[in-house]
Amino acid sequence: MVATFAVGGSTANDIAGGTQLGGHDPNQRGFTVQGAELNLQGGVDPYFRGNANIAYLLGDSGETGVELEEAWLETVALPGNLQIRAGQYLTDFGRINTQHPHSWGFVDAPIVSGRLLGEDGLRNPGVRLSWLAPTPFYSELFFGMQNSQGGTAYSFRDNHDNEAFLGRLNDERGVKAFSDMLFSTRYAASFDLSETQTLLGGLSALFGPNSSGGDTDTQVYGTDVYWKWKSPRAHGGFPFVSWQTEAMFRRYVAGASTSVDLNADSIPDFVPRETISDWGMYTQILWGFRPGWVAGLRGDFVTGQQAAYERLYGADLSRAQRWRFSPNLTWYPSEFSKIRLQYNYDDREAIGVDHSVWLQFEFLLGAHAAHKF
Amino acid sequence: MKKFLFVMINLLLAFGAQAKLNIVVTTPDLASIAKAVGGEQVEITTLARPTEDPHFVDAKPSFVVKLNKADALIEGGAELEAGWLPPLLAGARNPKIQSGQPGRIQCNEGVHMLEVPSQLTRAEGDIHPLGNPHYVVDPVNARIIAEHLVVAFAKLEPGAAETFRTNGKLFTDELDAKLTEWSAKLAPFKGAKLVSYHKSWPYFAERFGLELDLFLEPKPGIPPSPAHLAAVIAKMKEQHAKVIIVDPYLNRKTAETVARSTGAVVLDVSQFPGGVKGTEGGYVALVDYLVNSLAKALANKN
């Protein structure tokens, strides 16, 4: 069980969903319970291994929520270097999407993942096939098929709580055909550049329908790179330097609609069928300069090409260009607890500059599950 | 046709004789014992490097590939590798090295583990439920491991069982002879006080009658605090402890500071062949180095 809390404040008046887009981000001035996450894993039987992540959340008005983040089983001995995973799982798209908040180097999620993959990240029930290619270096291919509806499929058939999304209301249509599923694919490769340096990179893509019209679909493409240096005499994993960068591009084909009043004249406005393009990236460097201490710096950037509905009725602030810079400092008293101080300098087009400071603290009860690279 | 078959069969036999067992070993100490037993019949790949902290090795993707191609995996079995081995095994999708298979070799089988906690609480630091996992540095345990590997390798490659037995016997005979020599060298220092940084040397200390109950870390895995170091310094003066042993990945500066205030010496040691200069030769070379340098340091300080 990992429990994560934050305390702090911001000059912004729209913290939850405004400056902070991630569902596990600090969401208000004062204290936030970022989550208490229960992780269970182990062998199911000689054929399968299982994993479950259940997050307990406390909303800003004190109500408790439970989220089934992941619950899947995976084959252990399939021939041909193949592996099948089935259940509820985080889609293999880029790097940050499959990481739980406990493994993040920062207090909050990158803006681009909040904007293109949604506050919860992309996860849904489905099945995934992966193949470890017989190359001398690490090289793995992933193919996934998942449900495309719900709040955890943000850029797909999410009805967005019946609120306007990209200038349209989304209907909740059921699955009509095989093509209504969400398909994901990823290729990852890794090289040891030297005894102390490792590089891991990937290309990912998502294909699925969205519910903004009759025959509408979304594609998201991403590329990610992770580099790490660790001292040949590392103690407790220190000292190290790591660099992680991810870029995402979304092509959203939106249907024609007359469902939303966009210019506030109480009359629903017509928007034509169009293709809406957004992209963004983040880059972050972490420096573990002495045992237990890590200094970090992250830069975020997101932007969107002006859409037809914006030309007609004014800019959509949720797609506006935005920069963010986040220096932070983390202290790990042991591998089972951490304290992190972070400052966010946020510059949103048409809204302006905001400053936020968050102090995060986390503790771990029970076994500390091993981290993936 | 007959001739062709004959050539093919010969080729196959030649190929079969050439094929070595591809063995992945988690740490360099176990790797050197595996090399001694396996000899020419095995190809050894070691994951952790001798100078790094074996608790915190990165689960590099290249290790997944190594494990994927392995005929066998040799591990400590006492959770020393718990922080990095599980995700590698999950990614490796190699049925041969799954738990319970002959290709999954856990070296602590038959080893008497020290410091098995009666109560599991992390208020005591990062303790291991199966006992202190740094057991290989006791030569008697190395003997148990070698005998275990002879049996395990024979199961994997029955054709070479005799070779493994011969290699194993050579190694254990050398250990037996060396153990007498090592014990004699350290006998004059029976009961001598040692100080170590991490609690990774109880097996060695117990084997050679050295006393080791002062640690620079207040609790396993917890970094030294000034107050704790002050207490250690006071106890070292009181007990006349004159030698501080430090593994290559630990903070030598902390040990040097303590040594300055107590008139002690800092001695570089390693649990792994290759971790300090002069130990590259393997397990016996490592213990040779440990015994000789300790005897020298203790003699100079008495």
Secondary structural class of chain A: mainly beta
How far apart, in Å, are the first and last alpha carbons of chain A?
Answer: 21 Å
Largest sheet of chain A: 16 strands, antiparallel, barrel
Order of helices and strands of chain B: HEHEHEHEHHEHEHEHEH
Task: Identify the overall geometry of chain A.
Answer: globular
Question: What oligomeric assembly is this protein in?
Answer: heterodimer
Total beta strands of chain A: 18
Number of helices of chain B: 10
Roughly how much helix do the residues of chain A carry, as a percent range? Answer: under 10%
Which spans of chain B have pLDDT < 50 for at least 5 consecutive residues?
Answer: none
Which band does the percent of strand residues of chain A land in? over 45%
Tell me how many strands of chain B there are: 8
For the biggest β-sheet of chain A, the strand order reads: 1-2-3-4-5-6-7-8-9-10-11-14-15-16-17-18
Task: Label the structural class of chain B.
Answer: alpha/beta
Number of helical regions of chain A = 2
* Termini Cα gap of chain B: 80 Å
Which value, in Å, is the CA radius of gyration of chain B?
A: 22 Å
Report the β-strand fraction of chain B as a percent range. 5-15%
Model description:
The complex is a heterodimer of chains A (373) and B (302). Chain A is mainly beta. Chain A has two helices and 18 strands. In chain A, the strands form two sheets. In chain A, strands 1-2-3-4-5-6-7-8-9-10-11-14-15-16-17-18 form a 16-stranded antiparallel beta barrel. In chain A, strands 12-13 form a two-stranded antiparallel sheet. The model of chain A has no long low-confidence stretch (mean pLDDT 94). Chain B is α/β, with parallel strands linked by helices. In chain B, the strands form two sheets. A four-stranded parallel β-sheet of chain B has the order 2-1-3-4, with helices on one face. In chain B, strands 6-5-7-8 form a four-stranded parallel β-sheet, with helices on both faces. In chain B, α2 links the parallel β1 (21-25) and β2. Chain B starts with a helix and ends with a helix. The mean pLDDT of chain B is 91. Chain A binds chain B through residues 43, 46, 49, 74-78, 81-83, 132, 135-138, 140, 188, 190-192, 195, 198, 200, 228, 230-237, 291-292, 334-336, 368-373, and chain B through 49, 51-53, 55-56, 58-62, 64-65, 68, 82-87, 90-93, 95, 98-100, 122, 125-126, 221-223, 248-251.
